[in-house]
Description:
The chain is mainly alpha-helical and 124 residues long. It has 6 helices and 2 strands. It has a two-stranded antiparallel sheet. It is elongated.
Amino acid sequence: MHLKESGEMYLETIYILSQKSNAVRSVDVGEYMGFSKPSVSRAMGILKNGGFVTTDAEGFLLLTDAGLEVAQKIYERHTMLTDFLIKLGVSKETAAEDACKMEHDISDETFEAMKRHAGIYTKG
């Protein structure tokens, strides 16, 4: 199943929240993203059906291996692109916003090239 940008954003959000707390609920995702309960519920249903998310007996959201892989990929892109743009002189706020847009569309080839290039900057 190919995820749309919104699905990737939900997975990234679950990942971020799970780094702060082992107990992530749909309501936490909604609050973090600023989305309504029905929107989050619908998205979680799609992600569950796609094999990206499960819930435990208490209703906490858990990323499957496939969900974790996508979430970590998107999170890495977001953080690296944000840092890269900041190093170019972009404000933190704009860099974060632009990285959020770029992280979903950039090819693996281009992202890997940017990571290599960014590595040159951090060593220099």
